[in-house]
Fold these 4 entries.
Entry 1:
Amino acid sequence: MRYIDFDKTQAFTTLSALTREGVHFDYAAELTAERIRSAVAPMAGGLSYSFAAKPVTKNVLAALQALADEQELIAKYRALLDGDMMNTGERRKALHHLLRGQLGTDVIADGKNLGDFYKQELARFSRFADDVHAGAVTGSTGKRFTHAVQIGIGGSDLGPRALYLALEQWAAVEGSRKLTAKFISNVDPDDASAVLASTPLEETVFVLVSKSGTTQETLANELFVKEKLKAAGLDPSRHIVAVTSETSPLAHNPAYLDSFYIDDYIGGRYSSTSGVGGVILSLSFGAGVFKQILEGAHEADALALESDILKNASLLDALIGVWERNFLGFPYTAALPYSQALSRFPAHLQQLDMESNGKRVNRNGQPVGYATGPVVFGEPGTNGQHSFYQLLHQGTDIVPLQFIGFVESQRGDDVTVDGSSSQTKLKANLAAQITAFAKGKTDADPNKEFTGKRPSSLIFGKRLTPHALGALLAHFENKVMFQGFVWNINSFDQEGVQLGKALTKKVLAGGSGDAALEAYSRLLDI
Amino acid sequence: MRYIDFDKTQAFTTLSALTREGVHFDYAAELTAERIRSAVAPMAGGLSYSFAAKPVTKNVLAALQALADEQELIAKYRALLDGDMMNTGERRKALHHLLRGQLGTDVIADGKNLGDFYKQELARFSRFADDVHAGAVTGSTGKRFTHAVQIGIGGSDLGPRALYLALEQWAAVEGSRKLTAKFISNVDPDDASAVLASTPLEETVFVLVSKSGTTQETLANELFVKEKLKAAGLDPSRHIVAVTSETSPLAHNPAYLDSFYIDDYIGGRYSSTSGVGGVILSLSFGAGVFKQILEGAHEADALALESDILKNASLLDALIGVWERNFLGFPYTAALPYSQALSRFPAHLQQLDMESNGKRVNRNGQPVGYATGPVVFGEPGTNGQHSFYQLLHQGTDIVPLQFIGFVESQRGDDVTVDGSSSQTKLKANLAAQITAFAKGKTDADPNKEFTGKRPSSLIFGKRLTPHALGALLAHFENKVMFQGFVWNINSFDQEGVQLGKALTKKVLAGGSGDAALEAYSRLLDI
């Protein structure tokens, strides 16, 4: 396999020559009913990916297919599935797909079959959740657990939290609400203090998540929790389980009720489908619900092996993103779910995308000569319509948009006002926004004019279920992976977090030796 | 007064000529202890604005001062305070400053003194909150109110919600927690349904907020609430107060327990210091706490009259933002509060900034030839450090950063791990990040290299109190206003929301006559 920089490919030259086709794409003429009907790629979990309102002509699509072929994107994905070393910086495999099922060869490392290891841990924490639900495992006073609190930050917080919120209401109406989950992440003491003050400690199981077992914020918050438990007369070792790697100080530690393991091949932002997300989600909704998430994700992973870009939504989404980033010059993407349940899904996507592809060197450590990952931000619709959409419609720059919507609500509880239900209004707004962004509107008053030409895609499905959610999660993971392959960067490391950590240690050690660091420390009265 | 486009000013030419001073600003050499000590502008509420790590030389600062003078930014602010027509598109005044106190002449309109009108409404809803707290006003069964639920969207949601979350923990430890607040905003029926299912309706007062009284989402959610109240055997007219304009269908309506009024001169995103934020905050924390927010905001408004940019933090912040946007070419800004209490403050700033200045035409409706408002996004630190900071440190593009931090936590509840409290760790991380972003680090391994040169500012203070929060809120309002003056745009309208509204109505009316709109409606099974 050949790993070359994007701007050294033939496809880069071809796409450069096509830039005008994108810039001058005539949305008003092109966005026909036929295009909207047919420009849809299938996704897993009953979802579909509509790209009708993206500035891609037949020529552009052909060039993107040629790019996928030339950069051997599917072959690289297969290599990753087989356990080849993708995480070049630190020479690590990236095996999150294997958490959901096996699509490649057996992956043997550290003397074991890792697929078997992941299955075994899944079985272990599924059983633990079952035991908690059955009352076979209780807190130190014998009371049943009614609450679960995750202690973790970054990938140990954003993904699990987004997935919990995505299913909380679904579970309520489907009879799958088991425990109520909360989350402690920030080292700001107000975070842990506030959560603990409003949680019934006697009935709470804490899920302490740190792969390395050395995360500063998480260890500080662990002590916070332990002190409150002790002050309440409870035994912390009966109220905390750990999710960590087997080599971490948290592993095999009698200080915890139980421990569940991941390994170095599961990156934080890709760990929602491991015990990092699995323990809290299984406790909250039952192990069966978590397995439905895994099934949806596995289906999406299998579909991502398809080499025809029109049949592979995550690949197509990735390539259109590259087209917009590198040739049309848009430095951001807005993620806009028309679903209150996905209120924190954009925050997860923000980490997933920006931490994976916010890189300026290629796999070999040489600076690249083109833009890589964009800034990702977003809020749910229709809320955002009454907020930042003004700039999206009439600002001086163009922001590509990624919409998500569902035919049905989760709770099925609705009202009819002026002849339509709220769910219908929600969907009508979504259809209207896509059309408005693409086609715009002329007006004699330029302040009321909409220039349109704002590209968007739409992921849509019947209802946000665990199965659909798993597919949605994996879609974006695979999209980001394919973009990393195109850009020839390592999407699975995060060296950019190290300098801040090192300087923080210096400050806390009392003498940093850096005049700026010391002067800022004085401003903050450290 | 002269309203001219930014690129027609002498200052624009001067700043253009200085671009290289910004691009080549030598952070490593310039970021001395002396600069960090002295590059601080005073703010209201005991806050300070540090701009040491911004790429501004003495020459640049002088040119920015000249820009402020040439574009008559203070005179334009004074005119706005005096009630001159700033909202040119719809010919409306912008009077949110007058909610906090009077800094200009009396503003007479619609046959009344508007300062008096705002004071009278403040007094009315303060008394209402007092009555609720005293048990003199109760729900229809005579039970005391323990919960308040805001029904509103956009400016009727984001600002009030951000302020509520900002003070919830402060109030808990200061003995100022009166009612627990919740918020319903989205037209997605799952939003209202979930909030109502988890709220004790008998003890809940709803605050229905819509200036026009015609907001689609808010009216749908009002009916949602009324139906649930009736189903619970409660009388809606005893559980709902309205905040609206006197000309709206909600005004003087016996369907509500009481009504409080704003007028057309208070824009949604500027309405947190009116009854839009005031009713829910007074109910939650007491009228006295809300008045402290107003005092902090009024102090900030007074300080913003200072013509020396080094003594006027909101003006300086605005001008540095213009420098970064128009000359250094950065199309985004990240808002990064190191305070869990400010978890939703970035979402409010996102609306405030992007809805105000996301404009492509000037005050006279002519397209401008320069970039206006940037994309604004953000999450609290340290959480963001474990997420999107990778791109901020090592991405291919530069994102200017706006940090916020406090010396003390709100709750004062803390633990010591490895010799430092969590609050100290929080601050050490903040100092470390600013330094790391500015100065970077060389490394033999390019993947571990940080190029630095990432500009940031820091707003800091002792503790996030209501007074400080008011000052912080007004700082950003005034910053955005000054930028609008520089760009010669109208920061107080939002025509960009209209097209989506119109197309939504067409869809809901059943026949849109637009093939694209109908095709998307079919995808979503409308």
Entry 2:
Amino acid sequence: MSSMMFVGGEKGMIPAEIDLAPPKDGQAFVRLLAAAFNKRDYWITQGKYPGVKLPLVLGSDGAGMIDQREVIINPSIGWGDDPNYFADDFKILGLPDFGTFSDMIIVPEENIYDKPGHLSWIEAAALPVCGVTAYRAMMTRGRAKKGERMLITGIGGGVATMALLFGVAMDMEVWVTSSSEEKIQKAKDHGAMGGVNYKAEGWDKALVSQAGGRFDLIIDGAGGKGFAKMVHHMNPRGRIVIYGGTAGNIDDLSPQRIFWKQLDIMGSTMGSPEDFQNMLDFVVKHKIKPIISHVFNLYEANEAMAVMASGDQFGKVCLDIPWE
Amino acid sequence: MSSMMFVGGEKGMIPAEIDLAPPKDGQAFVRLLAAAFNKRDYWITQGKYPGVKLPLVLGSDGAGMIDQREVIINPSIGWGDDPNYFADDFKILGLPDFGTFSDMIIVPEENIYDKPGHLSWIEAAALPVCGVTAYRAMMTRGRAKKGERMLITGIGGGVATMALLFGVAMDMEVWVTSSSEEKIQKAKDHGAMGGVNYKAEGWDKALVSQAGGRFDLIIDGAGGKGFAKMVHHMNPRGRIVIYGGTAGNIDDLSPQRIFWKQLDIMGSTMGSPEDFQNMLDFVVKHKIKPIISHVFNLYEANEAMAVMASGDQFGKVCLDIPWE
């Protein structure tokens, strides 16, 4: 197969031909037509994951064909039977198993789902990780309801933009934060009520003032110093779901606010097979298309990675995979 | 009625005779036989609650008689119809309405429940606040299950000792922390597997080592610096329920640990009418008796308050109410 192999160092990823062993019982062989990046791919190249052995084919998101069947891949490998938590041998596609930055892949058959018909190949490849992560965080964990006021911190990444689309589709009032005025405007273009720049003095009070009230649900991928402020601006019985921690550890959190308002602060990662199916059903029902920020050719994967490193994207950074 | 009125200053509480208006429709007149203290009573005297008008009869916990019927009082006044959160006009008995440090009280009829037959008057008065708070925190919010490993931080207070009894009754493995070796020993006398002194260096690792594994559920009334350590020692999908914050704000909390383990950190306060009834049923079924630390006469209420201020109690500080 033709792949971009991550070899580390200055070379980053380089083109390589690999021989694939034929699929075993219960495995499917997929010819990939598109792939997409996640922050995880970047963190792996930065040495933030243990146990990386080079060379490695990165990539957790992919869509393609099994003979004439159009499919997308659920990247949660071996979640197991418990909807509440993944099994001990759970892994995310792309480490240690070879991932989707390749024209072919072998994955468990149970991870194969039909590609939603309203999505292009690029859109389909953009969906799996951010779709299932946003769905589990918002719905399964966060119990999002129509009409509620939801805040998405740090809009721009895949999960955050997907949560925005989900919230708008189900008639929530969606608000965002960002360090970029341009991203706030883009979020409004996609249906957000508004947002504030979290680098501005007093951003949190300005946000509550603009929103006309406190929040019922927060989807947070940041943590850090802003988190405690958000707890202050929750409605009673509000829920905060944490799916990432790019801003570092959380400080100065008031236990009194948490117990008196009976808040739920919950962690969420990826999703169960049921979450994945429910996400697909929701996406099909509401004809949701993931927001695509950049599309590169497979062999331009290092340029795509540079966008991930910059954090400048709004939506997904994708790879178009040529067949030779 | 004969009451101990909180008048503030050096006098604290003083004996006083008050004329009660006759009960209105929907209200019950209870002749009190016993009352009990909560940390709340102490905090009120320390000016930690807004809107206190003196003189005030303190006290949220009480048991007594309505004619020949033996009753205890649910101190959650006006919780309302939503089991998830109390209504806007919710209040806890003893502020602003006159509380239980008195030989008579008028409360809503819906807050009257039959006194469990296996409890003495003092034990019955010790039950309501800590019983319902521990029950909601552990069961309704914390989803405690038989066989799970539970940690109760800062053992000694009413809620913590009641959570200990509940956990032992339902065959959980219960562990505790305290700054007092004597309290750890007392907890073991009541069925705890063991505990550590949180003032010792490396207490958290020592605790996990003693316990032979990580925790499924933590009942925490402290917050503060120890909290982040505890998050480190949770099992995947563990739950931490916060019902107090005596150690202050929480720092250095890792979002990565929260999302990867899919933890739930939840606040809980008091309980709904359903929680109160379920708590009583549980207490009757398991013949649980609240742990009584000190008993004073009503007119010794200032001495009882001094114990609350010291934090030296293990279990409830109670008042025996004489009839004249």
Entry 3:
Amino acid sequence: MARTAITPTREENYPEWYQQVVKSAEMAEVSPVRGCMIIKPWGYALWEQIQKQLDEKIKDVDHDNIYCPLLIPLSFLEKEAEHVSGFAKECAVVTHSKLVKGDDGKLVPAGPLEEPLVIRPTSEAIIGDAFARWIQSHRDLPLRINQWANIVRWEMRTRMFLRTTEFLWQEGHTAHATADEADEESKRNLQVYVNFVQDHLAMPVIKGEKSPSERFPGATATYCIEAMMQDKKALQAGTSHFLGQSFAKALDIAYSDDQGHRQHVWTTSWGVSTRLIGGIIMVHSDDDGLMLPPRVAPLHVVIMPIIHNEADQANIMAQCESLAQKLREITYHCAPIRVKIDANIEQGGRRAWNWVKKGVPIRVEVGAREAADNSATINLRYTPYKEKRTCSQALLIAEVVETLDNIQHHLFQRALDFQKAHTKIIDSHEDFYAFFADDNKEGHGFALAHWNGDAAIEEKIKQDLKVTIRCIPVFDESAEAGICPFSSEISPQRVIWAKAY
Amino acid sequence: MARTAITPTREENYPEWYQQVVKSAEMAEVSPVRGCMIIKPWGYALWEQIQKQLDEKIKDVDHDNIYCPLLIPLSFLEKEAEHVSGFAKECAVVTHSKLVKGDDGKLVPAGPLEEPLVIRPTSEAIIGDAFARWIQSHRDLPLRINQWANIVRWEMRTRMFLRTTEFLWQEGHTAHATADEADEESKRNLQVYVNFVQDHLAMPVIKGEKSPSERFPGATATYCIEAMMQDKKALQAGTSHFLGQSFAKALDIAYSDDQGHRQHVWTTSWGVSTRLIGGIIMVHSDDDGLMLPPRVAPLHVVIMPIIHNEADQANIMAQCESLAQKLREITYHCAPIRVKIDANIEQGGRRAWNWVKKGVPIRVEVGAREAADNSATINLRYTPYKEKRTCSQALLIAEVVETLDNIQHHLFQRALDFQKAHTKIIDSHEDFYAFFADDNKEGHGFALAHWNGDAAIEEKIKQDLKVTIRCIPVFDESAEAGICPFSSEISPQRVIWAKAY
């Protein structure tokens, strides 16, 4: 076996491999605060790219960014009964406003609040309250806002990026005059996620609607995108909710229609979070560590001068500087190519492996041999570590955009092939249970099976196999009715079943 | 008197004028959460410009962005005694992790935490804990990180942007091997603020050091920038702290020096917040509302088609679109000119006033007359509302960058002239008290007076006049020693006294 940078490998222990990829790429670490992580520079730089690029798309669909308070009065959260019961078990509650010295000299909470404040687990309640003030007339509709914020949900079992007590996200909120318009809006915004996640993160997704049991608390419909990780489990990568009038009625968000009658609005909300980073890691990385899609990579190219003789140093460094400069002048998807020169030659072999583990798409070496004829030795991260080719610096520069686009496309196609290879149409109860049996190494993945819509069947399968309906692919126009293998009843269409994060 | 858009005027009631500028520009509103505000689209778009432009400067001085937890265990905060006592009176404390139904059916906090968590009032304690893990060897130094985050301090008296319970900020944190290097770092980062606030926000500032009584809790030295508002009060616009070894020792942040001996590091921190928006408002705006410095304005140019006859509409709109497109192709300080066409002609006169109140630097009208000869009628926000000139669209395009730069320069110079006109050298106790007397309309502003360094004098003046030492201009090389008028003792240099926000 070839040496791999990550121990254990995916094959040996996938969950532990994931933690080691995060660690060796220096993306994040567990913090001493229960269930929270510290996002380190490499992880945060990736989040900045995601944030910047998705923010542009959100603005393109007419959302204005705002910022609402972190703290939500308990009475606000309580207004929508289903909503609050969905989050009550995981709320961080602020009860005091200062600290004073107790009898033993230790600080204790003091200044008890009249009303407890909840750290936002999501912002429908507080933003809905603002909407109720901002919306008076039909001329105020539609209203579309977005917020980049931190969220706290007191999770029992946490895993870096995938499920943490505090996480960063974006939440869009809209209000509309009609149900149809609001439902269309939530579908349009789902499509923003499909495009972003597929085109920028190179993660193929299946879009659909959640079954009623998996809906967001308070929603009429929850639409979602689901991606397949390399362990064949699903990751819910984004959701878009048609909230009906539940929040509008609970928070009295209403407008005067053109006849002057007061009507409640119809609202939506939609969000993605730092969880996307977990998805990028699990879809693309290998046993040598992180592998980043070029569109969102904090660096596209790392240039490493290889200096064996001091006499060569000046010339090699000058060529590296010139190459970096020329690459930075090139535009890749509306921004300059991101290039770094890593001249830490004293690190020896660790220098290259560091960038392999961090997943930089293109690694370039310039040593005495390359400097002599203005060439460069190149490794692409998705090919084996030792697979290198030497070409002229001019050619590298001329082809760098095409190379990055090819890598992006390759990563997407590879993930799509994997997803397709592990998606199976299943028509019998027996085959379904066999597919998800613990000892079936060939099995797992996405099962496309009919379902009659009965929540009891869903619950039993969840108990038996830890398998859930990831989504009902309601946007798939080729979907056909059939027979549910669990009830022998009519099923309107196949749904996607999988184990999930 | 000419009509003004804002009631009351600055002259009539400055604090209320401020609130009305915020309101009429739709920048923010008071939220139902005590002491917190909702930052609305126009205010948030301004913050996005500030954040983006300052972030570039922070990266230029080698800070990497990270994200640390919102919640700090009480035991962490307690480690540095001076630090915690400085913040204990204004801490939001999380004591419970869920909500359950009480006997009356109402939700009550449950799941009490073993250790209370404090919502970060600043992050030295939690980032210092990370530094203690990340720093092992002298090769790990210097370490420079930055974080964009929300902060909660339970303030008793709040005012939008200037002092709110929750606010947004940036906090840089660094660690160094020597005291000199750390002190130099904190001075260098102060200079980043001087350049940013003066060049981008057009706010002239005076830089200096805080007196010991005004230092950040736990700091050895606090450097700051102070700006003069139009009511002649000072606003502390940014601070940079040399923290000595107080946090390094409290949190055991240490490295092995090149002899292998364990040494505590020297740390610094530096921050600016959404308070800067309050500064922009109070320095530049007038009785017609907000006035934005072009560098950070969310929009540079608003184009308003003026349509009286439907027959003209197509031609006028086409010219507006073409003009907007050509302007957007122009680069102003490394980004495209930000242009909007406002075609809401049914709003009548309110349409133009809306943009006046929002402070957009350049307002352009294109009506039938202008469309006939490809001209445009222009008003610059800093000139009177009715002061318009008509020029060719070609000239507007050719000169737009110069025009924006001129406006930027004009705003800065006007504010600097105001600051200088209201800064007075004072040498006697009597003159000092007269300068700050409530009924002295010509007085107030910045008083440059000697001070012997006695905190008791500082405290008495604060009690008598609500005047504090804003800073000791330690970077002013022309400073000379003299006699303190309050003690008749030797004073090393004049200090700046003022009332402050």
Entry 4:
Amino acid sequence: MLSLDQIKDITHESPSKIVLLVIDGLGGLPRPETGKTELETAHTPNLDMLATKGICGLADPVSLGITPGSAPGHLALFGYDPIKFLVGRGILEALGIDFELKKGDVASRGNFCTVDKRGLITDRRAGRISTEQNAELCKKLSRITLEGAELFVVPVKEHRFLLVLRGEGLSGEASDSDPQQTGVTPLNVTALTASGKKTAKLANDFLTKAKWVLADFHPANMVLLRGFSQHPDLPTMKEIFKLNPAAIAAYPMYRGLAKLVGMKILETGSTVEEEFDTLARHYAEHDFFFIHVKKTDSTGEDGDFDAKVKALEEIDRLLPMITALNPDVLIVTGDHSTPALLKGHSWHAVPVVLCSKWSRPDHVREFGEITCAGGSLGRFLAVHVMPLAMAHALKLTKFGA
Amino acid sequence: MLSLDQIKDITHESPSKIVLLVIDGLGGLPRPETGKTELETAHTPNLDMLATKGICGLADPVSLGITPGSAPGHLALFGYDPIKFLVGRGILEALGIDFELKKGDVASRGNFCTVDKRGLITDRRAGRISTEQNAELCKKLSRITLEGAELFVVPVKEHRFLLVLRGEGLSGEASDSDPQQTGVTPLNVTALTASGKKTAKLANDFLTKAKWVLADFHPANMVLLRGFSQHPDLPTMKEIFKLNPAAIAAYPMYRGLAKLVGMKILETGSTVEEEFDTLARHYAEHDFFFIHVKKTDSTGEDGDFDAKVKALEEIDRLLPMITALNPDVLIVTGDHSTPALLKGHSWHAVPVVLCSKWSRPDHVREFGEITCAGGSLGRFLAVHVMPLAMAHALKLTKFGA
């Protein structure tokens, strides 16, 4: 695999346009009754047409057998080696609620939890308190002051919140206070390396004060922190690929991931039709578009096979809104598989189709897991999707003399 | 991928013979009228017989989506990771005209160019002056003397020449004087690291004197230099693979690349028939042969689909001259694709067939791009061709205990 610096040396600007449609959790597993996955079950004439015209394959987002989180799944598709470029849990939480991170901020995922009189954790999620209660308690925690750093406590959903520390000399090199089990006390935060000392001290100070503030709010009478992390400060797609990239995503986390690599975020309605319409309206302004569709993942996570099939059929029905724009390169794939049968992300390789005037067609005529396995792209790592897209858009020059 | 040191540990000498036939620019793109590539269009019963007997796949010379220059394309086939082992532009230029490089030499690609009265470049190729004029001007430039280094100025073709600096303490760590655009002045050569200081100084001295020498020779009244580089000093195939390798190539650049890895260069006529005949005559003397056929690439670069088809058919017709020798391992592939439709090197994966008594046959019956995609080698990196060849020649022992 070329390094980003090596790729940077061979990319050049051109008017050609690339559209990357990410169908979240695209891949699935066959329903035993039919032997067909969600994608194989869905009636998808437009995706099948793409498969017929283009080239297909199966992509592993991170590595064979590895189930990716949303961050590595997307970073790979954006061309960033997901094994090298890591996004911490805290940062992802911040991206997920559109929190405006500054350079140097340390973010951490927080849970309200329940502790008994001896301080032992009895419920790591505080009975999943309501989001409203969460907001009230976060307001109280926000009043805590720490010496040497600003502090933000922002509610997420139910028992989840975001803690951000802002100040000089912070680092993500601090251990979790969340022991990930009940029947024990929360842990002290410790510095994982010397650079984490100040962060650990601030976090422990916050935890002491939070315990005091929350003492009377059973079941949410304590908090757990995990995933201390800093903004990864990635080189932008503009620097590496010389693209002017834009993102269309209804969910904040995916907008956040796009922001990490310097994409412009386009305002959009939240339905697939509205997202595709946003693409059409802004098509003249950018040369790279990332469009994220969420529903296939959430229905997969719900274990709702039929709903995922319907979500795929809706995307297929609307696909002509994209193909009508005639992008020089159109890629349709997912950031990972979410089989309804597993009710969660999985490690299964993800179907990919790449359609361009300069692709050498293969024999694949249907867009599905088994058919893509026979495509000419073979089985490959998702981090190669961007170089392939750039090549087919004629935006790469020769490597080496 | 194993390192060369790791490979070295498991190779051993044996009488078995490997023949690697490199059909330059082998892969293509389908002609819209027929949907068939050059190779799929060509009548190639002998290659198809190899595909039937052997195993097939599609190789990416460098990485998915990456278009290789000739050097990375060949180094990969010789078993050298083309991302790690780089050959500079200047060195390739020297290899291309059979210039005898010495260790420590710094080579640079030169262009005659035109500058106006203010010194701004108006034509980076000096109106593509004739090769004869080039030779005359190079003779004049050869008379320039530099303090601390010998200097060679050797004509190539039209506006292109080779500059070689020979002396102590030189390095390729010097920037181009060629700004790769018109309307600006040539750049000063600067040291990219401390080791490039002497080279940069010598190059700038040469450029100052060249400007003076050429002042009256409009349109070739200045020169541009780029790709300062040194001989990469690769471990030889003898060291790594314990082979006694020979190269048969009508074009100097490919002989030069073969020399880089220590192959013996066999004198040969320039037709395919003469090249194959050279193989037969020297067959007893070596256990590895690299044969390079150029015409498929040059016809591809010319955009001449039919001529490329004919070149492929000629190779196929003569192939029995090779198979009659019954090599233990015969591999036919290319260093990259050169689709006539793109008139140049491309990133498309290259068909590979490997034929040996010890290959486990697959279902492929025709040697073509789509059929090879379905072969049992799958889609793989070209750097694995040599380990596969060595394995099938029973020249590798077990890796690890």
